[in-house]
Design a protein that fits this description.
Length: 83
C-alpha cells in the first residue's frame, strides 16, 4: 500500500498535486499489470490469473476515492484563497 494513503491529507496545493500524481501513477501500474496478466493467460494451457486480476482491479478502484479526496481539498483551498 502506498505510504501517502496512511497519513492525513496534506494542507498545501503542492503536496496535494504531488499525491494526486502518485495516485494516478499507481493506478496506471495496476492497469499495466492487469494487461500483462491478461496477456499471459492461455486458455488452451489452462493458465488463468483471476484472483490476481481481481485484486489489481480492487486496488485501482480503492485509489480513486483517495484521489478524489485530494481534489476536493484542492478545490476547498482555492475557494478559501479567493475569499
Amino acid at each position: 500500500m502506498e505510504h501517502f494513503l496512511l497519513k492525513p491529507l496534506p494542507e498545501t496545493m503542492t503536496e496535494l498535486e504531488a499525491e494526486v500524481t502518485l495516485i494516478e501513477a499507481a493506478q496506471k501500474r495496476c492497469d499495466d499489470m492487469i494487461r500483462d496478466l491478461m496477456g499471459r493467460e492461455d486458455a488452451a494451457q489452462g493458465v488463468f490469473f483471476p484472483a490476481e486480476i481481481h485484486e489489481l482491479h480492487q486496488q485501482k478502484n480503492m485509489l480513486e476515492p483517495h484521489k478524489e479526496f485530494r481534489r476536493v481539498r484542492m478545490r476547498r483551498l482555492r475557494l478559501e484563497a479567493d475569499i
